[in-house]
């Protein structure tokens, strides 16, 4: 099997690119001598969903190959692989079994990731070398960082004189232009230049410029404009003088146009667009003019004067265009510096910085050091969706890939690169994606030293029925005539045609909405949007009548507001929907309730939030009063205590003040426990909780083994306390889980599931991790743990257990085992449908996905920003629209999404309304133009993108026209993505927009469809609907087995009166095994709270409150503690007047740490050392104390006493 070093796959829509990628990947690992060849492969794509699909396809294929009877698709793939690799089916089967086993045990080395994640991994690994903090957090929230930076800059007004004057001048400029005086938007736009890769090269020219230098350039340009305007007047006057000197009558010029043209220049009224005189024949002379010969003689001189005027005005307009942008641009460095400062303060790194950091590091380095180690590991590379790869991302990868392509591994196998893409689906230019990059590579460009390169065209469409394929072939070939750029024209003329598959038939429908007539008399007249939504509803109803289900249908829109308009109308008509709106977390009733309550907690005078809260309670938690009366009574109570007492009469017990004292996350947890539990929902809404009768109780000796009653808030409180006081082993494991040792798996600590508090849980993979102390080996506890595991298994959770010793002594093995289990869970969960999310209907269901996702947001915000309620609400107001739950599969509902979101997806029926985008009205990016540095002090300038740019000279006109062609390509690419999503039926709903003369509009999407129909000889402006193919449903129904499960939030409501709770360690004391040891450990922990004898009572109270001991054990513990602190041999250790350090960590010179249990430092700097032990005497403890002594004396202290205190059922003091 001979593979080219560099393969380029041009894969049009539906052509099986993922199949091609997976097949090539499998070929490499199947023929490799070792079973871990996947370790040497890096596969990169652009979305987490694509990563998941590729991993699933590879693992799924290997799993099927390994079976005795693989599925038919797997058998077909095996046959293809057998031919290509010259391996037998038995060899493939055996090898697959070995590889899949290896991958499961080393899943982290199965490297398929997004390019951002790969870059992050590189930066994280080399953070020190890149001068980054080792513990930086990655943030996707770049926009809010930027807003924060702009706010900080504006806040500096009045402090920095230069900055203040600039901001005032900028405000005045905007006011003079009749624009809003608010300058923050323009500064924000400038800030976005810093973050956008498309501008990286240009803004480097500005990075060393101060505000003062920009002000100087601005003044210089403004003065230059005045000078040039005077020069143009002089040129006009010289031309007029020439006419006058030659005795020419101005009436000799046709209609006097030419002299008037010169006068307009002289008087400063010249319109630069009227540059009409360039050639001899442009100056019209009356045929009867007596001085015609004289005029013709001086025409060359007149044209020369005008040429100077025109070029002068080109400069003037160019300068003025830059002056419009120079003020916000002068803040470029200020914004950049402020942004860097904020990131440093918050210890975050914006994801937008990743590529630039790598790029700066590898420039001009023949062998970049950050790739040295990676270059040894990776030998084969796959890049999916290459058309979305930015220029900088590609440049960053080239050195790493070039190293692999230039050499061979130990088995003589050369490195390879396979890139897959389609420039027709390049729709992300605004974030760096360039179709041109793929086009150039597809031609002659090769950035690698190895010339072995091959281009493959995947030109068969496996997705769509023949009618849709043929329509798109004809339609996009016709659109190729829209381009002037030869490469873009060739792309659609010669590379958009696809071969059909064996699915014959299908249906395409192009319709136009009726013309909107304006009438003052008919106020009820439908507007354009109404007509589109009506046409969309009609299309859905017809599709359902043909046998399609709602879930077969997708509505694609170019803009979000179009989707919202359709969603609102379809909802009113009872059509089930899934859209970005219905999946938004902020739209869920439960989340709105939490937000309303947080707003009330922030400000109890917020009557709107209070009313919304009362409305929820009225509908879900009480049935004593009519809804209106309930709300009215509550709103009339302005004193919070009165309000709380009134709520108590409806069995709603809470203290707003107590909730305010909690952390953000704890406050939200409390709200959920109190108001989103099914017991409060009056049994309405068909909740799916398993309610337990109050008398159906299981008494337990350990927290968490309980059912029944109203006790969830106490469990939450208990979980909170346990999070604050983890065991040493729990602390170690939590640090590893938090530091993302397990990549994208998010864990929670001491989390409530059903009625259990589990140590750690990954909710997305339903994996519970328990860390057990020694008492778990007791017979009674083993049985309790088994019962607990059985219950969690029934809820869909996998439970794995580790001992304290395993965690503390071999954390790497523990993490490896957790990772293996996560992979197995992922494979298991993928074999059934993903988690179903309830619609935001107001019902409180089991494991409400919206609440779970909201809790994740709150937790991340709380941990990273230590945010209070007020901070979080500000954050939520700005960002709520960004958060949504994943779209659940299998739900019988019409999907609404933007075209960009649909990329890579396919649907039986696609409806594309609002197909009439006016491309002239689109907001255009600004343009970078070359400038003469002696004039500007800068090699590049930023100007607005408009037709006026064509008048700034030939070079500017060329840049402008190229930009227009790029925008046209991007627009047609978006249309290509939309029209190639359909499998069986495609509906386009447009608007003719014909002029009163019947002319087809230019630069409007509707013209593409009108021209297509005209080319077919079909178009008639009186005909609104055109059909191609047969509308009968051809496909058979795909069976979907709904095995989805929800993740439970809090599944049972518990009653404290019927439950006996044993507090944390206290449970151990009822067992015989290791009783003394466990009792000693508890005493040891309590002693860490005590500095002198006076602290004993407070320490005991704290121990009870934290759950370390129960109230009934208070006397026993108190007696033991008193025995220690008052022991005749230990009195000096607990006397007052000394400095006490309990469990104080000491870092030794070689970097190791020690932690003596008690260190007493006298005023003379003498030290008494005390260490508490349990169990039998051991000589190693003496050695430990001697090590402590040695370390402390190196610090300049003198250890004069040291002792070991063995704590068990009796106290034994050993002096050393």
Automatic annotation (TrEMBL):
Residues 1-465 form the UvrD-like helicase ATP-binding domain. One of its GO terms (cellular component) is cytosol. It comes from Flavobacterium rhamnosiphilum. Keywords: ATP-binding, Helicase, Hydrolase, Isomerase, Nucleotide-binding. PANTHER family: DNA 3'-5' HELICASE, UVRD / RECB / PCRA DNA HELICASE FAMILY MEMBER. Transmembrane segments: none annotated. One of its GO terms (molecular function) is ATP binding. ATP binds at residues 11-18. CDD domains: Endonuclease_DUF559. Residues 466-904 form the UvrD-like helicase C-terminal domain. The keyword ATP-binding applies. It catalyses: Couples ATP hydrolysis with the unwinding of duplex DNA by translocating in the 3'-5' direction; ATP + H2O = ADP + phosphate + H(+). This is DNA 3'-5' helicase. The keyword ATP-binding applies. It comes from the Bacteria. It is an enzyme of class 5 (isomerase). Its EC number is 5.6.2.4. GO terms for biological process: recombinational repair.
